[in-house]
C-alpha cells in the first residue's frame, strides 16, 4: 500500500489534452497537495497549499514564472512613478510551460522583452546600440569648446595635467529607457532610422561670399614622446613630438571622419616655429580644414605621452576661426539620390574641389557656365520661395518647403526616439519623422518604422492584431494610463499624473509611448487573454466577508441617491426603498455578483411584529443603518460610493464595518486559468462554488467536494 501511495503521488496521471499548458487534473487520492507541488515547492499541511520555490507558480507549482523587466507601459502608482518591473516588460506573453516570454513580433526582444528591436537590423550598414551606448559614442569635440591649460592643468602652476577633462561626453544613465531603447548608429555614407538611406556629398555654395574655412590652433610644448588627436570620435595614429608639418598632415588625412573621398587636400598644416610639431617653449600649429565646412567640432588632444626636459609637457587646442561656409547636401545646387548616394546637379552645376573650381568632391559646387543670373526653377523657386537675387541667387523657401528650387517638401517633426543627449540624461530633441521614419519629400509625409505611427512617427503603436489591443481595450498614452489605478477589483479614476511637467526630461515619453488599457474580462499586454473568475480559497480558515454600512436619515422618505461600484451606478434609490430593493440594485452592477443586505437593528426584518411604518426604509426619520455583506467578490472590497444625493436629511454615508479577509484569487487558488477561454481547470477535489465555499456556478474552483 505504501508503494502504491508513492507511485500515485510522484506520477499522477493527466489527460492527453491541455488548454495552453493547463493540465486536466485526475485523482491523486492520498496527495496532501496538488501533484505534491510538482517537486517545485513545499506542501503546507493541513490546508494543502503549495508554497512554490522561486521561479514557479500555480496551485501545484507546475507553472514557470517569466523574467521581469521595466515596463514599457503601465499605470502610474504615483505622480511620474511608472515603468515598474513587469512580466515580459509588458510587451510579451509569458509561456508558463517554459518560463519564456513570447515578445511582440519583430518589435521587442530580450529574455524579458526589455529591448526595442533595431529596425531591419540596421540594414547591414550600422550598429544596433542602446541610448546609453549612443551617448558614449558622442564626439567630445561637439561638447568641449576649448581644450587649453585652463581645462587641462590640474593646478595653477600646471605641475600636472589631465586630458580627460577634454574628453567629456554626456551621460545617459538615469532615464528608464537608457538600456531599453535601441537604435541604429549608421556607417559613414548611410543614414535613416534603419541605415537604408545613402547620403550624398555635402559642400559649400560657391555663390555665397565672405565665408571662411575653419581654423584650429594647437600648441605643443614638449621635448620628447608622442601625442594623438581625435576628430569626431576617431583618433589618429601616434604622432611623434618632432613630426613635420607634412607628416602631421598625412596622419590627420588618415582620419575617415574627415569626410571626403576626393583627391583634393583635406587639411593644411603650418607651424609658427621650426620644422617639429613641438618645441621647448611651445610651438603653434595652425590646422585649416579645406574640405569639411561649417563650424566644426574641436580637435581633442591627448598629450599624456609627451615629455619635457625641464617643465610639464602640454598640448592644447582651440578654435581660432569658426567655419562659416555652408555644409549643405549637394552644395544646395542639386538633389541627392538616396538610393545611390549620388548628387543630381542642377543645369550648369557639377562636382567641385570645395572652393568653387572643378574637382572630385561629388557635390554640385562648381558652376560650369557664365555667372548665375537667376534662381533655379522655370518660375523662380517654383513659386514656393523667394529668390535672394545677386550674387548668390539662392531660394529662400516657404515653411514646409526645401531644396535648391523649393521643390521638396519637409516632413513634420516630433521628439526623437533615438538621439544623442544634449545634456546629462537629456535627449529626445525634435527631429524630422522623430528619427523613426523616412521623409517622402515629394509628399511631405513620413514613412514610419514598423511599430510607430503618427504624422511624425511620434507614437509607439499599441500591440494587438488585427486590431490594436486585440479589440478588447483602449490604446492610451502613458499620460492617459496614469488616469487609472487598479483597486484589486476594478480600475478607477486616479489623481496621479505622468509627464505633467513638460520640463521633466525623465517623463519625455508621456505623450509618445502607448499601451493598452484592457476592458473588463481581458488582460495581457495586448488584451488578448481572457480573465478567469476570482474567489476565496476554501482551504484557508477563519476568514470573514467584507461588510459595509449605509447610514442615512430622512423624515419624509422622499429623498433619493445612487450607489456606485467599479465605475457603474445603480438606478436611483429612493429613501423609502427597502433592503431588498438595495440588494436587487447592487447585484445589477456587473462587478457585484452577490450581496446580502440586512438591517443593522436585529429587530427590523420583514414580518417582524410592531414595526414602525418607516422601519423597512433605507432612510427613516429615526435614522437607519443597513448592512451590506459582500458574498462575491470576496476580500477587502472597495467602499461603495454615494452619488447624486438629493432631499436626504442626513447622509447617506458608507463606512466599512468589517474588513474582508478572504482571498480574491484567480480560480480561488485551486485551479489554473486557461486564458484562451477564461475558464478554470480545477485541481482534483475542487469545483465551481457560489463564492462562499458551497457548490455554485461561478466557475472559480472555490468548492471542495465532499
Automatic annotation (TrEMBL):
The keyword Signal applies. SMART domains: EGF (SM00181). Coiled coil: none annotated. Pfam families: EGF_2 (PF07974), EGF_Teneurin (PF23106). Residues 1-16 form the signal peptide. Disulfide bonds join 33-43, 52-61, 397-406, 448-457. It comes from the Eukaryota. Keywords: Disulfide bond, EGF-like domain, Signal. Residues 29-62, 371-407, 423-458 form the EGF-like domain. The keyword Disulfide bond applies. PANTHER family: EGF-LIKE-DOMAIN, MULTIPLE 7, EGF-LIKE-DOMAIN, MULTIPLE 7, 8. This is EGF-like domain-containing protein. It comes from Corethron hystrix.
